[in-house]
Amino acid sequence: MRIEKLDAAVANQIAAGEVVERPASIVKELIENSLDAGATSVTVEIEGAGTGLIRVLDNGVGIHPEDMRLALERHATSKITTTDDLLSITSMGFRGEALASVASVARTTLTSRAEGSDRAWALTVDGGEEKRHAPAAHPQGTAVEIRDLFFNTPARRKFMKTERTEVAHISETVRRLALANPGVSFELKHGTRTVERLAATKVLVDRIEKLLGRDFLAEAVEVDERQEELRLHGWIGSPTYTRRTADQQHLFVNARYVRDKVVSHAIRQAYRDVIFHGRQPVFVVYLEIPPEAVDVNVHPTKHEVRFRDSRQVHDFIYGRLNRALRDVRPGSSNDSIKNAGVDMNPVEPKPPTWVQASFPRQLSVQVEGGASTFVTEERDTVYAEDRVFPPLGYALAQLGGAYILAENEDGLVIVDMHAAHERITYEKMKSASSEQTLVKQRLLVPLSLEVTRREADLVEALTEEFGRLGIGLERLGPSTIRVQEVPSLIGTADAAELVRDVLGELVEYGHSDSLAEHRDSLLATMACHGSIRANRRLAIEEMNALLREMERTENAGQCNHGRPTFHVQNLADLDRLFLRGQ
Question: What is the pLDDT of residue 349?
Answer without folding.
Answer: 42
